[in-house]
Design goal:
Length: 1069
């Protein structure tokens, strides 16, 4: 932890004589509160050992037994505290570095959730070398009261001001005192149920069971919890430490004298991967599966694709763990479990045995849950006797790992014992999409498959007999002719029959390929080469052709089904002029109408269904939710839930938000006929509040275009000008809302997918901080392909009041219970109303100051300056803000989209028909890197630097090291941006900037403004993380003042425009 003027060596000699230039944020806050920093404590080299000894500060051993370790990497801090040398200390934790030494030394500690306390000024090599685990700062003390005082002091306005990336969650006194919830649901476990997990020592197991009985006696409900897939968790954990294949650790530890416990680690960094596989196999035979997993996982990742796949698998495990927490009727509030499998170990024990128990602590770094350690006693003589019996059993069975661990318990009487307390609560029908095939068509299909199989067998015999090539080619032609009939009507019939036949035809092609490969070696060398090439090309092209036929067959069936559903669900509704005016109201106004009895939920649903039917020609609607009518009827009879702001309100969703029984295609044909098995968490909460999901809206393929058109749902264009785009990827949602086809919608945003279409279509939206709203059930390809950007869910509406109602509804106990990874921050009414702070410090800018940045259109610049004047007139302090290094930010942004070198996008977009705006993107995915460098140079000469940056950044990363380096650079930029926010005497509360139209050269941008009169304009309001209420407050002020002063009449204009366009083009009108 940085203290100005003192070294932060990380235990490495190479870092000596390099004092910190400023205090860490945590140190600044503590100094300001009157605390007196008086010593710093030692740590092992790079923080990666349970032996906290180092060449700089010397050897460390346990205070009660000099033959045992005190733990690491915060072992120096733990020894100082245990010896009463300090009343309070701070360390860091990335896999147990606080909790392991605290448990070994008999003191308390707390590992908070990452970003609960500021990590600015915390120096760590490990976060640069791994793809997921982040080091976090935490307090250590002899008593829990000291930890409470530390957290009370730190979780205040000063830290939130110095580090704007920290969620502004003060210390929750009601939660701590128990006044909010006295009786808790507590889970416990004494060991992991996995083949590769080591059992705990008898003393450790006894400690957990005693604490269980103690908590039960205090009135808490204590029941067993089973962590899901511990072997998988350990594999993911160890793999992420070696995400870069060990390159970072090799660099950090090179030429450094290391303690003996780290010699094996350094040696493993230089062993090639194939040899590690062999050693892992041998270790599995002689040392057991735990040691084998450690060796095999240390191979790490050797490509950018494998790093991103590892990141995706960890996110999946995090979701599975959260579901296990919430699986029962009474979700767990807290979990008690062992801190480690044994008390303080012998210093002579090999590190590979010690590391087998790392999952006990590191699991809660992997899923990022807060966890603390509290001492509960000491090892007794009975515990040692039980360990001695186990030692004999392990030796007889040949289990060397558990025998070595049991041997450490001999002589451990009197050592401290502790338990770990983890907090997991950070505070029906299926639509049938395939037709039933008639028995006659099934017989016909079976005959074709049988016929093709016969010719495949004949081909095999021909190759065996070395018959002429012409005969072989003829047989191949016959196979493919049978696999796809020449008759046009037969082809159409087989398309309609479904996908099974096409799947079988693809299998036949692959079978042909296998036969040719296995038999081609019987030919001469020239026939071998020619036959290989011809066969490869013909069979490969045939498989691609059949797969595309399969996709078109699925698409045709999907379109027929959608047309039928729309006709039966929307177009048959008779127009009711008395209900039409409801469609232009906000959710706030609609809720008043429902409560007064002026309109019933079913009537309101029909009004919006009628309006949505008129917007079908915009191609913005994906699916119609068939059970919406039944839900609305039930709400007509249920008045108890009418207090909810969204009771009875129809709601639309972008189609990548899961709704049970409906496709989440991401605009890709390959994802059709794969309905979601359950609702997304956001959808569950809204349904529970009485909202009525009634349609889903379309999006472009994979969500990577400002043109929301797709082959599945058709072309989309702007409502006011058919020659212009409506924006993407939430363009379908924006068009539906702008056309008054829905009062409230939800989309997703990864780089502007909510804000760009909202600005183009003249509506409001909010992109929350990631994890302010649950992302469970949000389907996205992009988070799997990039190293940093995460898609988040956000509301869209015509009025800001509707966004406020949405956030008030979602930010409640139900969402926090369904998704324990969400910080339990309810909607802050004081922050939104302005009662806490009336006058704000607002930053603004109209353009980026960078060589590669395009200037805004005059209309966009004028809009920002008008809003600036408006806010000044309301008493806010508005001053210019300069975003740091915009060219670097753009390079980092574009590079992270191609972190895997484009492999994920190539896979997602292969064999997919794309809108014209995505043709260049697909082409760029197949251009080799050296050619992209050349094209970037040419583009820089003729199109300008912006185009050159786009092309050069699309090269992406081609190794695991470059992905992790990119992640580190983004973290550095995030810290630089936070410092820019807090640089002045009055730090900015909010920022305003223009909404960029896209990445074009200045000439193209200027040309686009011709004929743009009457198009909507918008400004973007940016707040600090987790302060969505403040963003909504300023948005509301701007909206109210703009309407009051009649700067524009956007909502009335868009309603009239849509009415004219849609009513005039509706069939039959």
């Amino acid at each position: 932890l940085s203290l100005k003027g003192y070294d932060t060596t990380l235990g490495l000699i190479k870092n000596l004589n390099n004092p910190a230039s400023e205090d860490a944020v945590v140190v600044k806050v503590l100094r300001s509160a009157g605390a007196v920093p008086f010593v710093t404590t030692s740590m092992p080299p790079s923080g990666l050992s349970m032996d906290a000894s180092s060449a700089i500060y010397g050897e460390q051993r346990h205070f009660a037994d000099k033959g045992r370790l005190a733990g690491g990497s915060s072992g120096g801090e733990a020894l100082l505290l245990a010896g009463c040398g300090s009343p309070l200390g701070f360390g860091s934790d990335i896999a147990g570095s606080l909790r392991i030494p605290a448990a070994f030394c008999g003191i308390s500690c707390l590992k908070p959730t990452f970003k609960r306390l500021s990590h600015f000024g915390l120096v760590s090599n490990n976060t640069r070398n791994n793809s997921r685990l982040d080091a976090c700062v935490g307090p250590m003390a002899r008593k829990v009261d000291s930890l409470v005082d530390a957290m009370r002091t730190l979780l205040g306005p000063e830290m939130f001001s110095l580090d704007p990336t920290i969620p502004p969650i003060p210390f929750d006194e009601a939660l701590f005192s128990g006044s909010r919830k006295k009786s808790l649901v507590i889970g416990y476990y004494t060991h992991f149920k996995g083949e590769a997990q080591v059992p705990p020592a008898p003393s450790v197991e006894r400690a957990v069971l005693e604490v269980k009985a103690l908590l039960q006696s205090q009135g808490h409900l204590v029941k067993e919890f089973v962590p899901p897939s511990p072997d998988l968790a350990e594999e993911l954990l160890l793999s992420t430490f070696f995400s870069d294949g060990g390159a970072g650790l090799r660099s950090a530890l090179s030429n450094e004298p290391l303690p003996k416990h780290m010699h094996l680690l350094r040696l493993s960094l230089y062993i090639p991967g194939f040899l590690k596989h062999l050693l892992a196999f041998i270790a599995g035979l002689f040392l057991g599966k735990p040691a084998a997993i450690i060796l095999s996982s240390s191979i790490g990742c050797h490509s950018s694709v494998s790093v991103l796949e590892l990141r995706h698998r960890i996110a999946q495990y995090e979701e599975a763990f959260a579901k296990a927490i919430c699986a029962s009727d009474s979700p767990f509030d807290v979990i008690i479990c062992p801190t480690f499998a044994y008390p303080a170990p012998l210093a002579s024990t090999a590190e590979i045995f010690l590391d087998t128990s790392l999952l006990y602590t590191a699991l809660y770094n992997l899923v990022d849950y807060p966890a603390g350690v509290v001492p509960v006693g000491v090892v007794t003589a009975e515990d040692v006797k039980s360990a001695a019996k186990l030692l004999e059993d392990y030796r007889r069975s040949g289990d060397r790992t558990n025998a070595a661990l049991a041997n450490m318990q001999i002589g451990s009487e009197g050592l401290p014992l502790a338990v770990q307390v983890a907090d997991p609560c950070r505070r029906n029908w299926r639509l049938n999409l395939l037709r039933q095939r008639s028995s006659s068509s099934t017989n016909c299909s079976a005959f074709m498959i049988y016929s093709s199989r016969v010719y495949v067998a004949a081909l095999a015999h021909m190759l065996e007999d070395d018959l002429p090539v012409s005969l072989v080619v003829g047989c191949l032609a016959r196979i493919w002719a049978e696999a796809w009939p020449a008759d046009h009507k037969a082809r159409r019939r087989h398309c309609c029959e479904g996908v099974t036949l096409l799947d079988t035809q693809v299998d036949i092609m692959r079978e042909t390929w296998v036969i040719l490969l296995s038999s081609i070696t019987d030919f001469g060398w020239w026939r071998l080469v020619c036959g290989y090439l011809v066969t490869f090309l013909v069979v490969k092209l045939s498989c691609i052709w059949l797969q595309r036929r399969k996709a078109h067959a699925i698409l045709a069936e999907k379109r027929r089904r959608l047309t039928k559903i729309r006709q039966t669900s929307l177009l048959h509704l008779q127009k009711n002029p008395q209900l039409e005016h409801f469609c232009s109201l906000s959710t706030r106004e609609l809720a008043v109408k429902i409560r007064s009895g002026e309109v019933q939920p079913l009537q309101l649903l029909h009004a919006f269904q009628q309006r949505a039917a008129e917007l079908l020609l915009q191609n913005c609607i994906a699916e119609v939710i068939l059970e919406a009518n039944d839900q609305a009827k039930a709400l007509d009879l249920d008045k108890q839930a009418s207090q909810s702001p969204l009771f009875g309100i129809p709601v639309s969703f972008k189609e990548n938000l899961s709704l049970k029984g409906y496709d989440t295609t991401l605009g890709l044909i390959k994802n059709l006929n794969n309905p979601a098995s359950e609702d997304a968490v956001v959808v569950k909460v809204l349904r529970s509040a009485g909202a009525v999901p009634f349609v889903t809206t379309s999006m472009p393929p994979s969500g990577l275009s400002m043109d929301a058109s797709s082959a599945i749902y058709g072309e989309q264009r702007h409502f006011a000008d058919k020659g212009r785009l409506a924006g993407g990827s939430s363009g379908g949602e924006a068009l539906l809302l702008a056309g008054c086809g829905s009062p409230l919608g939800f989309g997703s945003d990864i780089a502007g997918s909510l804000r760009i279409p909202a600005a183009f279509c003249g509506i409001s939206c909010l992109k929350p901080t990631f994890k302010r709203l649950s992302h469970f059930g949000l389907v996205s390809n992009n988070t799997r392909n990039n190293s940093r950007l995460d898609a988040c869910v956000g509301p869209m509406a015509r009025k800001v009041d509707s966004l406020v109602d949405a956030m008030r509804t979602l930010l409640g106990p139900e969402m926090f219970s369904l998704d324990p990874t969400i910080p339990p921050i309810p909607f802050d009414e004081a922050l939104f109303s302005g009662s806490r702070k009336k006058s704000l410090v607002i930053g603004y800018y109209t353009h980026f100051k960078g060589e590669a940045q395009v200037p805004p259109a005059p209309s966009v610049e004028r809009a920002v300056l008008e809003v600036k004047a408006l806010l000044q007139s309301q008493g806010h302090l508005v001053k210019e803000f300069v975003p740091p290094s915009p060219d670097l930010a753009e390079e980092l942004l574009l590079s992270t989209f191609f972190s895997d070198g484009g492999a994920g996008l190539r896979s997602a977009l292969s064999n997919e028909p794309l809108p014209k705006h995505m043709h260049l993107l697909r082409l760029s995915l197949y251009i080799p890197g050296f050619l992209k460098h050349l094209l970037a140079f040419i583009a820089g000469l003729f199109l300008g630097k912006p185009a050159a940056i786009i092309l050069s950044s699309s090269i992406g990363c081609h190794s695991s090291v470059s992905v992790l380096e990119l992640r580190h650079r983004i973290a550095q930029y995030e810290e630089a941006f936070a410092k820019a926010i807090c640089a002045s005497d009055s730090p900015f509360d909010l920022l305003e900037d223009y909404r960029r139209s896209g990445d074009r050269t200045n000439a193209a941008l200027a040309n686009m403004q011709i004929g743009s009169e009457g198009l909507p304009l918008a400004v973007q309001v940016v707040g600090r993380p987790m302060q969505e209420e403040l963003v909504l407050r300023v948005m509301k002020e701007i909206e109210y003042s703009a309407e009051k002063e009649q700067l524009y009449e956007l909502f009335r204009l868009q309603y009239l425009l849509f009415s004219r366009i849609c009513f005039c083009t509706r069939p039959g009108v």
